[in-house]
Amino acid sequence: MNVLIIPEDFRKDQYMLKPIIEAMLNSLERRASVRVCQNPLLGGIDQALNWDRIASVIDQYKYRTDLFLLCVDRDNVQTRRQTLDNIERQAANVLANEKMLLAENAWQEIEVWVLAGHNMPAGWSWTDIRTERDPKERYFLPFAEQRGLLDEPGQGRKTLADEAARRYTRIRQRCPEVADLENRIP
């Protein structure tokens, strides 16, 4: 299976999404080649939720991709899931039967998926992390700083995501949207 992850902006998200999605596919016992879409650069959530932009990515990669995974932040937007459902429906209309696009939003940010695979510092509550509107600034970056990783690729995202992916079951348990995405993969 050839998988293309479509992030809202690959420059940092690639470091988190690739190892987590690879771990997900390994847990499903799927042999897969996983790539992150870097061309075109979707420079943020507005472009990642724009059907014309997603359609152009599909058109560019449809001959080399079996499964497209659009992964974005929820950013506390209550209607984000409905927007993603609409993109999935539109993609189903243009993709051949054996190909598909699945879309998922991290609650609230993809950095939370990474944190889910780690033991949190004393005084941090998983419930607080999941309900925080800005968990990247409030929890992820301080965690990366505590670990001395801010100068590494993606401000520690690579190292922390690689470590978290080795505990994928924990990510799946702590982040229901990850389990939902996994369950929808054919």
What would you say this structure looks like, in words?
This protein has 186 residues and is α/β, with parallel strands linked by helices. 53% of the residues lie in helices and 13% in strands. It has helices spanning 10-27, 45-48, 51-61, 80-94, 110-116, 126-131, 135-146, 157-165, 168-174, 176-184, and strands at 2-7, 33-36, 67-73, 100-106. A 4-stranded parallel sheet has the order 2-1-3-4, sandwiched between helices. β1 (2-7), α1 and β2 form a beta-alpha-beta unit. α1 (10-27) packs across α5 (110-116), α5 (110-116) crosses α7 (135-146) and α5 crosses α9 (168-174). The radius of gyration is 16 Å and the shape is globular.
Described by the principal axes of the CA atoms, the overall outline is globular
Structural class given helices, strands, pairing?
A: alpha/beta
**Termini, distance in Å?**
11 Å
How many beta-strand segments? 4
Average pLDDT level: 97
Low-confidence stretches: none
CATH-assigned fold name: Rossmann fold
Strand content: 5-15%
Quickly count the domains.
1
Helix content: 40-55%
Give the name of the CATH architecture: 3-Layer(aba) Sandwich
Strand ordering within the main sheet: 2-1-3-4
Order of helices and strands: EHEHHEHEHHHHHH
Structure annotation, total helices: 10
CATH class designation: Alpha Beta
Radius of gyration: 16 Å
Question: What about the largest sheet?
Answer: 4 strands, parallel
